[in-house]
Structures are given as C-alpha cells and as structure tokens.
Amino acid sequence: MSKYGYDIINGEKVPQLVVTDDYEIFGEHSGTVHVENGTLFISGKLSGTLIVYEGASAIINIGGKQSGTVSLYEGAIVQIKGNLSGTTSIPLGAKIVIEESARMVGTTTNNGFVVIRGVFAGATSGNGEFIIEGNGYIKEPTIRNGIHYYE
User: Is 35 a member of any domain?
Assistant: First the structure.
C-alpha cells in the first residue's frame, strides 16, 4: 500500500507518486504528486494535486503545465517558468516565484511570499506578500453578469 493512498484515474486505482530525489515529468501525468525531497521538474503536463514539503521544490519549466491544487509546506519553493492553473495554498515560510513570461491563474491563499515577474490572476486571501518585480503584473478580472473571469 502507498504511504499516501491511491487516486482513481479512469476507473483504475493508481498509487500516488512520491518524489524523494530530483525527478522530471515529461509528457502527461495524472494524479497526486508528493515532493518530499529534491526537486520535481515539470516539463510536460501534470493534471492533479501537487504537494511540496519542507525543504523540497518544484519547477514548472517553460512549456510545462500544472493543473490542479498546489499545496506548499513551510520552507517549500515553487518556481513557475510555464503555467500553473488551480487553487494554491502558500503557508508562512513558503514561496512561489512566477518568472517572466510565466502565468499563475487560480484562487490563492497566500500566507508566505509570491514573487511576480510574469502574470498572476485570481482571487486571493491570506496575509502573505505579493512582490511585483520587473514586468510582472496582477491581471484584473473581466466581470460579466457579476462573475469574475481571469482569462
């Protein structure tokens, strides 16, 4: 049995991926990924939950995509060079860096740090800092019929 349990993908029971050393995702991966140690490099597409533990990191490379929930622990770092789309939770002591030409879209609870050198769009909560550097910016929503769209 997997330490973290299983995901059900296309009706199949699949153990969640546990990263304990540097690891790279090419092509497509579906399901939950736990980064306990080392760095996860996403060069393809991850569809699922990404959890980055203390002292570990994840890099979404140029052309890489992550779609789903992202949860960081204190001391974790995520660097975005590609695209992140989903609900993100950043605790005190954790950090996300959105590099130039990268995008992060989705609802974010930020109690840590988000450095924006690219584009950030989405609803936010928490007491963390959003630091805009270089050409980075926070995209305002388009409002249609009272609904906020981050396009």
Answer: yes
Structure confidence by residue, pLDDT tens digits, 53-109: 999 999 999 999 999 999 999 999 999 999 999 999 999 999 999 999 999 999 999
Is the four-CA dihedral 78, 9, 124, 128 of positive or negative sign? negative
- Provide the domain count of the chain: 1
1 within some domain: no
What is the DSSP secondary-structure string of 26-88? Answer: -SEEES-EEE-SSEEEESSEEES-EEE-TT-EEEE-TT-EEES-EEE-TT-EEEESSEEES-E
For residue 82, the enclosing domain spans: 6-149
- Give the C-alpha separation, 38 to 20, whole Å: 6
C-alpha 96: how far from its chain's center?
8
The structure's pTM equals 0.93
Q: Is residue 28 part of a domain?
A: yes
Q: What average pLDDT is seen over the chain? A: 95
Other beta carbons within 10 angstroms of residue 42's beta carbon come to: 27
41 falls within a domain: yes
